[in-house]
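Milestone M4 deliverable, item 7.
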Amino acid sequence: MTAAKSKKMTLSCTEVSILAGTLARLDREAPYYKKDGYNDFNTFYMQAASGTKGGSSGSPVVDCQGRAVALNAGSKSSSASAFFLPLDRVVRALNLIRDCWDEFGIKSESVYIPRGTLQVTFQHKGFEETRRLGLRNETEQMVRLVSPVGETGMLVVDSVVPEGPAHKHLEPGDVLVHMNGEVVTQFLTMETLLDDSVGKEIDLQIERGGTPLTLKLEVEDLHSITPNHFLEVSGAVIHPLSYQQARNFRFKCGLVYVAEAGYMLSRASVPRHSIIKKFAGEDIESLDDLIAVISKLSRGARVPLEYVKYTDRYRNKSVLVTVDQHGWYAPPQLYTRNDTTGLWNAKLAIPLESPFVVSAHHAGHMEANSNSVSPLMESSPMDLKCQHESENTADGCIKMQTDEEVIVDRCHSGEDSLVEKKRRRVDEEIASEGTISPFGDLDDIKGGALRHPSSVESSDLAQTISSNASLAEQVIEPALVMFEVHVPPICMLDGVHSQHFFGTGVIIHHSDSLGLVAVDRNTVAVSISDIMLSFAAYPIEIPAEVVFLHPVHNFALVAYDPSALGAGASVIRAAKLLPEPALRRGDSVYLVGLSRSLQATSRKSTVTNPCTAVNIGSADCPRYRAINMEVIELDTDFGSSFSGILTDEQGRVQALWASFSTQLKYGSSTSEDHQFVRGIPIYAISKVLEKIISGTPGPFRLVNGIRRPMPFVRLLEVELYPTLLSKARSYGLSDNWVQALAKKDPVRRQVLRVKGCLAGSKAENLLEQGDMILAINKEPITCFLDIENACQKLDQSIDSDGVLNMTIFRQGKEIEVIVGTDVRDGNGSTRMVNWCGSIIQDPHSAVRALGFLPEEGHGVYVARWCHGSPVHRYGLYALQWIVEVNGQPTPDLESFIQVVKGLEDREFVRVKTVHLNGKPRVLTLKQDLHYWPTWELTFEPETDTWHRRTIKALQPTEV
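Output delivered:
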């Protein structure tokens, strides 16, 4: 081939760049991009050293006279090589379109371009290679004679797609000689003959190992094996296996193929590129089969699924899939390509009367009666089976997330037993507390926190427990729980940094109608999550729900339905809490937790510091971090990934051994997520539990069919840190105050200083960074607990106005100041909006803890964004506030919704944003309501459901 000069023109908006190059080859093999993605084949490419970069694909390649000769298609990142697609078949398609327009006199809406295929991949091999494959000399001479001068080889079969037209007829290594009587040595000739013979038989003459063979094969329509529809269900994209992937995986076309696992399938560890073979016990041969099975399932159902992956094609794998039960995702949608408009049109994939849709509609419109108790769903949670799940980290649609799993993996194991002494104590407690009706109102369950069924004695499990465990381990094992938590990618709120969490919790309340488990917030980070509990004392796995997220302390309370335990309800029991006396330096404790195999393990440790102040810096993407907390340190533990509880020798819980999330930064740009474990005194947890059980007034929410009040938390929304009195004296604190604070707390000998106020709090602009808090209501303050107690006294006072009379030390002066407190619930974020592919919420506490909100009326916060969305294309990324849309202020979600409701499809929108660093910016983006409708998710405590509502769409599909 002779080299020729060429130029590549790249268009970027209004800018044009032209790169010169020399065509080095005109018969280069099609570039190979990846083993499980798109690769071109059965064509030559041109190769040149033009130094093109990513983003210039599709740019024209022109010769010296300005004529387009190819399209820029790819490049090699390790060199300056670029690959160009010849325009021969492009010109054919263009001519067919023109002819159609000329025939009808107008532009036809859709033009059929015939494309034929045998589902065979050919490679061009040199004559030297074809001779080694057995090509006869006379055949080679004949081919050389009739071929153009300079022909260097022939086409050889590389692969055949199973069950395609050439399956069992052609084999790898076959050398193509004739096609319809014409010698074929070039891809262009072969493709022309195939395209002209769609639906017809074609004659092939090949040589296999030197033996001539003649075949008749039917040419298949390439369009018929190119998917024109796909199913979207719970974020998963499923469609018939395309010809491209059938080539890559050596499967037949049309099988049910998982292009994206989404949420529902990734929870069950079904990876991308899987082929679904069975679902809910039924064979799946086509996408229609899968849709028919889904339409029979109810939300929350757990059914088996069999799949095969091309990397392990000879073994089917079986998993349990949990059907999305919360309505976070829209009902299954079937997208079909419209060749007239070029759009993919969506419609509901299953009938409105199907159980899947009916159960979602029912869950979203439930009403609870405060005086009655009813099951939340018809199917009993007792029907749930144990399943093994692990997360398949996928690209998904979320860009901001760090797809690192926070997996608490524990390698220690031990077997537990219940000794006679503990059994007697349990029986005595039961006798003193009586029984509780399984279906009662709130008054019926008060005082049931420490009720322990006596049927533990008759449990067969107790026969297998080892006697080598410590007494503390034996006593506490029936109260230990393993968490597996999944967060749906479509609604990763509050800066949550992973989609999958593991951790150990402890049962703090267990009655006939309510079970409560305490766990750290590095395991249960947000309320919008799917939680599965596995119990150490009984082999069962059941769902649970978040009922309380402490806004400051690192713990959450999760509720489960005891009736779902069946016979296990008599084995499982709540731990006995020991909030007082507080642990002191030198005290002996037992660290008890669970391994991933649900085996309890423990070790005796000594408290080295019972009041270490937690100091966790803000992450790059603000997320929950514990502040204003004192934690317990031990001399020995099981490592940074082992969480559990701290007990005395009798198994009474003194602290939650909790996992904390932090981010370590290396240099100026590199940071990594890490975790460490410390003890949280059980005092704070027991206070919240006491309020829940006693029915302290608060916002109602439905839990296990009963309306229960959940407590408010009164807070001084100020981040504090301790400073030693010796340092405080250097700042000018008087001797009288130093002595008073040292006398109040001779152990800590510290004073609390203000690190910053949460933006939007009542303390903002009243307290300043560096202020020392000396006293509240004339009572000296030396630790975080003193401030919490002062806030609780405000709740206990009938005529309280919610303010604290504080004495502070600021810049060498003592000042009396009245500071307001804030009241927060334990629901976490309960509302989000998805607009143009961005996840938008009100600024959560971790963002407000940065101490800054935009002056322009605060604004709504962009938490995440999705690949391929309008915000991705136009650069509206996360970690910023939207303060105006088309000049209209958006101070909160309600205002934002009202503004975007009036925006039309394909309309350009002007958006004013403020970044976390305070930098304002104005950009424009175009709405695409066809693919990216505007919708919101809200949590309704009265019905204990998340409700999805379409705000703006071209074709609303709200159910």
